[in-house]
Design brief:
By secondary structure, the protein is α/β, with parallel strands linked by helices. Helices cover 26% and strands 23% of the residues. It has three domains: 3-179, Glutaconate Coenzyme A-transferase (3-Layer(aba) Sandwich), CATH 3.40.1080.10; 197-429, Glutaconate Coenzyme A-transferase (3-Layer(aba) Sandwich), CATH 3.40.1080.20; 445-625, Gcn5-related N-acetyltransferase (GNAT) (Aminopeptidase, 3-Layer(aba) Sandwich), CATH 3.40.630. It is built from 21 helices and 34 strands. Strands 27-28-29-30-31-32-34-33 form an eight-stranded mixed β-sheet, sandwiched between helices.
């Protein structure tokens, strides 16, 4: 016998003896997911003396093996706080019950005895020389469950890792010890990576800056998108669940936790769901700090992490921004889980925000997940007031602070192209948008990702450049009204006073993003980005396009116009053009200088009036200006 078994011989029983202490009508808590005590669960199911037992568990795996047994269901009633993939069919059929609750509040339900517990079945590592066992990969609500139960039965498994943090339980807190070694439950994504998840991951990577602290939720999609963050630096991690998806980020030193503001240098988590490789990685590793759900999921604790980015999945999102993540209509599918806790925590975090990710369609593309209204019976886990970014494989919608009109346009343009017109039509009928509103392009605009870049001015300001989208209407309007009268006159050749909805629609409705396009420059202002520059070109003939650009006065003289002209040339080259033409007022000497700087041999024709015609050939661009690379960041001198 091991030394510990001699020390605690008076507490040791076999599994059958241990579960015999469960009385008729008992309320039994079982440890979570991959940390559940499989041997004790099997012994409990095999004991026919156990009748009318209520089982509470967050994530069930082993119980799924018994759920088709009618006799088992007559003896045991299962209540899950989250419905695992293996239990989904049983939930649809009404064989198990679901308790919708925020993970941060479940321990309080136990402590207040609103959910009373008689027995706790948990799994722990063998005790050390001081008598401390570890809850290992299942701290979450397990600690609260065993603390509130009248009787605690622990399966002692040498394969359970010893994890640092609030995972330790002294043998004095355990009534019965059941030594039994077996492999821990392992859990992997049920669906493989695919083009949709790769595109979603690409867009999410654009939102995550170096030094951010992440939370990544349950599910196949969050698991797969993590790999798209491998190019980031010094990320932190404060999350409910650890999966194998994080391992490459740890191994490549992408997640270092160095820039975290809460518990720096340590990953904060609550439990693990993955492989033996993951369990070995966290075993006795002081870089991981496991805490219970009332700490990890507390929005006030979450908010102590600056730049906290919450990434979670959803089943559908309606045009106003309501999110359903736990049911498909009336059928319960998963659970509230950690989504709401982290959305609210990230909203309070300095520089933090949340991302809801979902494929644009379901059922092989037959149904849109961006919907006019949530399905009948669908649960609103996340209200429209909690949502910040929504991401599909067709782009990023930013909803925070946006009106219903703006939300409709943001979400319609990231819906699958075949559903966009229908969504806009229904929004019109509901008076969410203008009656004359044009739908977004029905093209798959993934190709315009190549049109994105950024520029750093000599005073250190970063300006991001991307194509103008329908959802930019209000930002474009604000840009126009921020310009001085002289600047407006130089751009439009008359004192344009109004920049109406109709004017903006004409601007972006004519865009095909190849022959006609507008590129906007966005600069950070507080918690959002505002347009500070815009450049456009429109096809003139097969080889030439007419170009025009304007930069807000406080960004003039920083090289922004020169960069924007070069970037428009890059986009035009991609689309087969060989030169630009422009019409400029004679008095607009600054713009003429921008053109001459890039194209020293440009042809300038001065007519008898106030306008000047400039013709520029890309082949004549200054050598150091030629062939602008499609980089994610192109640094400029600011000249």
């Amino acid at each position: 016998m091991d030394d510990w078994t001699r020390t605690y011989a008076s507490k040791i029983l076999n599994a059958a003896q241990a579960v015999s202490h469960i009385k008729r009508g008992s309320r039994v808590f079982i440890g979570t997911g991959c940390g559940e005590p499989q041997h004790l669960i099997r012994a409990m199911a095999a004991d026919w003396n156990l009748q009318d037992i209520l089982i509470y568990q967050m994530l069930s795996f082993t119980l799924a093996k018994f759920i088709e047994d009618e006799q088992f269901l007559k003896r045991f009633s299962i209540k899950n706080f989250f419905i695992s993939r293996l239990m989904r069919k049983a939930a649809f059929e009404g064989k198990i019950d679901y308790i919708p609750a925020y993970l941060s509040q479940i321990p309080g339900l136990f402590e207040s005895h609103r959910i009373g517990l008689d027995i706790a079945l948990v799994q722990v590592s063998p005790p050390d020389k001081y008598g401390y066992c570890s809850l290992g990969i299942s701290v979450d609500i397990t600690r609260a469950g065993l603390e509130q139960a009248r009787l605690v039965i622990a399966q002692v498994n040498p394969r359970m890792p010893r994890t640092w943090g609030d995972s330790f339980v002294h043998t004095d807190e355990i009534d019965i010890l059941v030594p039994y070694e077996e492999p821990l439950v392992e859990s992997f994504p049920s669906l493989p990576d695919n083009e949709v998840t790769r595109r979603i991951g690409h867009y999410i990577s654009q939102l995550v800056d170096d030094g951010s602290t992440l939370q990544v939720g349950f599910g196949n999609l969050p698991y797969h998108i993590i790999k798209h963050l491998e190019g980031k630096k010094d990320l932190g991690l404060h999350t409910q669940v650890l999966t194998d998806g994080f391992l490459p980020l740890f191994e490549k030193k992408v997640i270092t936790n160095k820039r975290k503001t809460l518990l720096p240098d340590r990953t904060v988590a609550s439990f693990c769901m993955g492989s033996r490789r993951l369990y070995d990685f966290v075993d006795n590793n002081p870089a991981f700090y496991f805490r219970s759900s009332e700490f990890v999921n507390d929005p006030l604790v979450i908010a102590r992490n600056d730049r906290l980015i919450s990434i979670s999945a959803a089943l559908e999102v309606d045009l106003t921004g309501q999110v359903c993540s736990d049911s498909i209509g009336n059928m319960f599918f998963s659970g509230i889980g950690d989504q709401v806790d982290f959305l609210r925590g990230s909203a309070m975090s300095k520089g933090g925000f949340s991302i809801i990710a979902l494929p644009s369609t379901a059922h092989g593309g037959k149904l849109s997940r961006i919907v006019p209204v949530l399905s009948e019976g669908a649960g609103v886990a996340t209200t429209r007031g909690d949502v910040n970014f929504v991401v599909t494989e067709y782009g990023i919608a930013e909803l925070a602070g946006k009106s219903i009109y703006q939300r409709v346009m943001e979400l319609a343009q990231i819906a699958h192209p075949k559903f966009r017109e229908e969504l806009i039509e229904i929004a019109r009928q509901r008076h969410y948008i203008f009656a004359d509103q044009l739908p977004p392009s029905s093209d798959d605009l993934i190709f315009i990702e190549a049109y994105k870049s950024s520029f750093v001015t000599r005073n250190g300001k970063t300006i991001e450049f991307r194509p103008l989208l329908p959802s930019d209407e209000f930002a474009y309007r604000n840009f126009f009204y921020s310009l001085q009268d002289k600047t407006i006159y130089m751009r439009f050749f008359y004192k344009m006073r109004n920049f109406t909805h109709e004017v903006v629609q004409k601007q972006w409705a004519s865009q095909d993003y190849r022959q006609n396009i507008s590129i906007i420059g966005l600069a950070q202002k507080g918690g959002y980005k505002e347009i500070v520059a815009i450049g456009s070109y429109a096809k003139e003939d097969e080889e030439r396009a007419e170009v025009a650009l304007v930069v807000r006065e406080d960004y003039q003289g920083m090289g922004v116009g020169s960069f924007l002209l070069g970037w428009l040339e890059y986009v035009a080259r991609l689309n087969g053009f060989k030169g630009f033409s422009a019409t400029v007022l004679k008095e607009n000497t600054a713009m003429l200088q921008v053109f001459r700087k890039r194209y020293p041999n440009c042809e300038v024709r001065f007519g008898g009036g106030s306008e000047v015609l400039v013709r520029m050939n890309f082949a004549d661009a200054r050598p150091e200006e030629k062939g602008a690379a499609p980089a994610s960041a192109v640094r400029g001198s600011g000249s």
